[in-house]
Design brief:
Elements (H helix, E strand, L loop, with lengths): L1 E3 L2 E8 L2 E8 L5 E3 L1 H6 L5 E7 L5 E7 L4 E3 L2 E3 L4 E3 L15 E4 L8 E4 L4 E4 L2 H8 L15
């Protein structure tokens, strides 16, 4: 991971090109910019509706999924939104072509070391080593308070 104006970014291989994506652990959907969608010959279609953390409603089209390379791992997000990410950042910042969320890493064990800006996508072997000295905790899920 890299620092992008205080936010995390990660290099992603898209159609043979290595490009930086925002890495958003709180985001619910992996998205790409209209420019990247166009360069991948993906025509946006349909509509997705979501809400940002402050409650702002966001309506965006989606496009057909495609492979994202993260090191030696290939992932295909189940859904990819198309959004002008430049509308959410200061005008003098470079617009990154996508936003990678945990949705794209579903069913994979990951380790985030935010202090060192490191994302590790664990294999079965590395996960066993990582948790070998840890103590499991009992947790109870509770419904959200509304």
């Amino acid at each position: 991971m890299h620092d992008y104006h205080g936010y995390n970014s990660v290099d992603v291989d898209v159609a043979g090109q290595r490009v930086p994506f925002f890495f958003d652990t709180g985001g619910g959907l992996t998205v790409i910019t209209p420019a990247l969608a166009s360069s991948l010959h993906r025509t946006p279609w349909g509509r997705l509706t979501g809400y940002r953390m402050r409650g702002d409603r966001v309506d965006i089209p989606k496009c057909d999924p495609f492979a994202l390379g993260l090191g030696s791992l290939q992932v295909v997000p189940p859904t990819v939104g198309v959004l002008d990410l430049g509308s959410f950042i200061p005008k003098d910042w470079e617009v990154l072509p996508g936003l990678l969320t945990l949705q794209s890493l579903d069913q994979r064990a990951i380790t985030l070391n935010l202090a060192e800006r490191r994302l590790t996508i664990e294999t079965e072997e590395t996960l066993k080593r990582r948790v070998a000295t840890m103590t499991p905790l009992d947790v109870r899920a509770a419904p959200a308070i509304r």
